[in-house]
Specification:
The protein is α/β, with parallel strands linked by helices. It has one domain (7-257): Rossmann fold. The chain has helices at residues 16-27, 39-51, 66-80, 103-131, 143-147, 153-172, 199-208, 214-219, 226-236, 275-281, and strands spanning 7-10, 31-36, 55-60, 85-88, 135-140, 178-185, 247-251, 254-257. α4 (103-131) runs parallel beside α6. It is globular, with a radius of gyration of 21 Å. The structure holds nicotinamide-adenine-dinucleotide.
């Protein structure tokens, strides 16, 4: 896939999936603005991309507030003259069950993921609209945001909000030919390697050099960072000019289009619904097949 002449920002690209996206975009010909918290980590990522024959510049900054977003877009324009692609990947976890989650746990996760996506996308959209020749906003969701997940009040709320922003911005930016999609990735990184169902197979795969087993790659849709990057490169490319407003899952051998929330069953009554009428209608009516919630447990095979 050809991205020559395109300029991309990837937030949180010092390691993990973000570094994978930055490397893949650079390998396809884009020039990349690398961002992360630690200047030494940013420098190492820029060196890594440069050694592989790519072009990158680094902006250490804590994504969340407007000045960081403006510094990132400013660096793309100052160093490379324009901005074509933004990948809002930076993220943290502060997992706790609801009754133990502190205000700081909630605010910090929302600040980096939800506010960081908003401030960076707004700065990018302003620049792309000025340029007048389209663009790509590639947001990062999560299965937790699509379904809810135990211990992840803050993270699930932020990621669900990001999917909602993708649909909203796809509407608002359509006329400017700026596409907006949410990637819903799953990959073995520092963030996921400690999930109990996956930890032993990831460790064995790394120790032996053998690929993850098919039940992990296909059924659980979990693989390596490199398994995920192709979707971001595709979305950044001219081939994806008509793809917008979508939440797209990728991981291991799996590529999926997520459904958007829609009314599943509907009932009507003349004059509106009383509590008693809803209670009578519910069991055999719209409540007969309730929706699932939570990420299904991985299909661990019998050993
Ligand atoms: N790994 C998965 O399976 C998975 C699944 C769903 C969603 N995601 C999402 O993908 C993204 C990357 O995840 P990962 O697994 O590579 O995680 P990771 O922890 O390996 O990498 C995240 C990077 O973001 C950086 N970062 C954190 N806060 C930042 C901030 N305020 N400003 C700039 N950089 C910041 C970190 O320093 C780190 O380098 C996250 O948004 C995550 O929620 C990952």
């Amino acid at each position: 896939m050809e991205l020559d002449g395109k300029v991309a920002i990837v937030t949180g690209s010092g390691r993990g999936l973000g570094l994978g996206y930055a490397r893949a975009l650079a390998a396809a010909g884009a020039v990349v603005v690398v961002n992360d918290l630690d200047p030494a980590v940013v420098r190492a990522a820029v060196d890594d991309i440069t050694k592989a024959g790519g072009t990158a510049t680094g902006v250490p900054a804590a994504v969340g507030d407007t000045p960081a977003a403006e510094r990132l877009v400013g660096a793309a324009v100052r160093d490379f003259g324009r901005l074509d692609v933004l990948v809002t990947n930076a993220g943290i976890l502060r997992d706790r069950v609801l009754w133990k989650m502190t205000d700081d746990d909630f605010d910090e996760v929302v600040r980096v993921h939800l506010r960081g996506t908003f401030t960076c996308a707004r700065a990018a959209a302003i620049r792309m609209r000025e340029q007048g020749d389209g663009g790509r906003l590639i947001l990062v969701g999560s299965p937790a945001g699509q379904r809810g997940n135990f211990g992840q009040t803050n993270y699930a709320a932020a990621k669900a909000g990001i999917a909602a922003m993708a649909r909203t911005w796809a509407l608002e930016l359509a006329k400017a030919r700026i596409t907006v999609n949410a990637v819903v990735p799953v990959a073995a990184t520092e963030m996921t390697r400690t999930i109990p169902a996956f930890a032993p197979v990831i460790e064995e795969s790394e120790r032996t050099g053998r690929p993850l087993p098919a039940w992990v790659r296909r059924d659980a849709g979990l693989g390596t960072v490199d398994d995920v990057t192709g979707l971001v490169t595709f979305l950044a490319s001219d081939a994806a000019a008509g793809v917008t407003g979508q939440a797209i899952g990728i991981g291991g051998d799996r590529l999926a289009l997520w459904s958007h929330p829609a009314e599943k069953t509907v009932a009507f009554t003349d004059g509106g619904w009383t509590a008693e009428a809803i209670a009578a209608q519910w069991p055999a009516g719209i409540g007969a097949e309730p929706e699932t919630y939570g990420i299904p447990a991985p299909p661990v095979p019998e050993s």
